[in-house]
């Protein structure tokens, strides 16, 4: 029986740890796969920016001046090629912001540290407005607030073992889901665990925990705030509550078994019903809980954990950014548009000048030419398929891009989703904050819970059930 209890507890705790790790929210954000974007105001010559990047070790920088016509038909000069596809012009939009005030440069992710060095040098020497695309680092300030609440309550806990182990899981929830709202839920949950601390090992302790107004209110509020952030956060918060309760019951079972195995089993004199949860000292601590919650609200309002390195960065800028496939405005081309342009370019010499040029290409479209060959005394007409628009055609073009001997924008596009939609948008995203309006409401709700409970204490005194 003891083995089964240990096995069940370890299974629940392991499931919680695995879920928190597996469903953790990534806090590293780049706009583009494998590339960083540097934007510099146009008052600085492109050649000077490229020289600064090269001096600091950035290689194969994709810039406007490095672009060429990516391919041409061997049967016709490029200047005579058709212009039905505006791809060649539209792709140049990748090298400027929407207001055309900044030049954009694309640098391989492997040169991130060199890029930041070049960026500092550029802004220091040129005193220009510039920036690097948003990249979110882990919001350690959020974790620090939760860790501070955990440490304070651990020191103040009467039974520290009964706070240490169950309190670790809410802190790990904050590591897994580093949002301001999740941190607020964690603070509420930690205080609920703290309030239950004095009840354990007393008669009817478990029943009293499930009946206590303050513990239930804090736990429900924590679950509500977490679920408001996202359904995943809510589910992980529920799993965290289960893991914390399981760890407490595991410790409780172990301690009771040790107590009963001695010559003189003991039981604490006062039952759980006789131990007041709502007492002045606990209410003072509950008021102190407003400090970390206010800190989270302040961080949400005034701090964005994104490494725009300098204060000189252009904070209001719209640069090429992947958008939803359903977005109405997507003026910039993707690699799929390059494939279409290449199709018309390569097939142009095989088309009759008297035929209408198609406005689009469909999967499986073919370009064929007729030839003739002798067959005895007869001449047979033979149709030869020159090009077919299919996966093989696109793979050949992609392989051709790999062989380009200059930093082409097509190399950049090849590393992205081939049929993505791209439009101008602000690169700054606050991954710790989530949706601004919802997050603010949830933080205000979390902030109101301790105040409401203190009001209940002031009017009703020791609410035990």
Structural class: mainly alpha
The average pLDDT score comes to: 82
Residue windows where pLDDT falls under 50 for at least 5 positions? 305-314
**Strand order, sheet with most strands:** 2-1-3
Question: What characterizes the major β-sheet?
Answer: 3 strands, antiparallel
Radius of gyration: 32 Å
How far apart the termini lie comes to 33 Å
Description:
With 465 residues, the chain is mainly alpha-helical. It is 50% helix and 10% strand. The strands form three sheets. Strands 2-1-3 form a three-stranded antiparallel β-sheet, with helices on one face. The longest helix is centred in the middle third of the chain and has 31 residues, at 231-261. The radius of gyration is 32 Å and the shape is elongated.
Structure summarized in a few sentences:
With 465 residues, the protein is mainly alpha-helical. It has helices at 2-22, 46-55, 87-90, 112-126, 140-156, 161-176, 180-196, 205-211, 213-229, 231-261, 280-288, 290-302, 335-347, 391-402, 409-414, 436-460; strands at residues 35-41, 102-108, 130-132, 319-323, 366-375, 378-388, 421-425. The strands form three sheets. The chain has a three-stranded antiparallel beta sheet with strand order 2-1-3, covered by helices on one side. A two-stranded antiparallel sheet has the order 4-7. Strands 5-6 form a two-stranded antiparallel sheet.
């Amino acid at each position: 029986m003891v083995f089964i209890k240990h096995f069940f507890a370890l299974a629940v705790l392991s499931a919680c740890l695995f879920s928190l790790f597996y469903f953790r929210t990534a806090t590293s954000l780049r706009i583009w796969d494998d590339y960083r974007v540097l934007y510099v105001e146009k008052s600085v010559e492109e050649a000077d920016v490229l020289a600064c990047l090269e001096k600091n070790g950035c290689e194969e920088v994709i810039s406007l001046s490095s672009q060429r016509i990516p391919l041409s038909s061997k049967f016709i000069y490029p200047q005579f090629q058709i212009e039905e596809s505006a791809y060649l012009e539209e792709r140049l939009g990748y090298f400027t912001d929407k207001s055309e005030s900044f030049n954009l440069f694309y640098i391989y992710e492997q040169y991130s540290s060199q890029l930041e060095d070049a960026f500092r040098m550029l802004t220091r020497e040129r005193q220009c407005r510039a920036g690097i695309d948003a990249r979110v680092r882990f919001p350690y300030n959020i974790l620090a607030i939760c860790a501070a609440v955990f440490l304070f309550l651990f020191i103040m806990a009467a039974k520290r073992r009964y706070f240490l182990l169950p309190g670790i899981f809410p802190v790990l929830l904050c590591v897994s889901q580093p949002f301001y709202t999740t941190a607020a839920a964690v603070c509420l949950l930690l205080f609920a665990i703290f309030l239950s601390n004095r009840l354990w090992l007393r008669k009817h302790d478990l029943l009293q925990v499930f009946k206590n107004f303050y513990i239930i209110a804090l736990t429900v509020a924590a679950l509500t705030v977490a679920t408001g952030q996202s359904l995943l956060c809510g589910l992980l918060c529920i799993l965290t509550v289960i893991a914390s309760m399981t760890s407490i019951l595991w410790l409780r079972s172990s301690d009771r078994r040790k107590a009963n195995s001695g010559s003189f089993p003991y039981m604490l004199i006062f039952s759980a019903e006789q131990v007041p949860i709502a007492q002045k000292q606990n209410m003072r601590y509950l008021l102190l809980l407003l400090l970390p919650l206010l800190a989270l609200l302040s961080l949400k309002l005034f701090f964005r954990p994104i490494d725009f390195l300098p204060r000189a960065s252009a904070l209001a800028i719209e640069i090429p950014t992947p958008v939803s496939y359903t977005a109405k405005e997507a003026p910039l081309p993707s690699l799929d548009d390059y494939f279409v342009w290449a199709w018309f370019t390569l097939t142009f010499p095989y088309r009759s000048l008297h035929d209408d040029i198609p406005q689009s290409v469909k999967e499986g479209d073919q370009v064929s030419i007729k030839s003739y060959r002798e067959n005895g005394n007869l001449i047979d007409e033979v149709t030869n398929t020159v090009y077919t628009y299919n996966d093989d055609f696109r793979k050949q073009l992609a392989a051709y891009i790999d062989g380009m001997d200059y930093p082409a924008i097509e190399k950049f596009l090849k590393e992205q989703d081939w049929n993505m939609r791209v439009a101008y948008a602000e690169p700054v995203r606050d991954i710790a904050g989530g949706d601004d309006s919802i997050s603010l409401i949830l933080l205000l709700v979390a902030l109101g819970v301790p105040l409401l409970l203190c009001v209940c204490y002031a009017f009703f005194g020791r609410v035990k059930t």
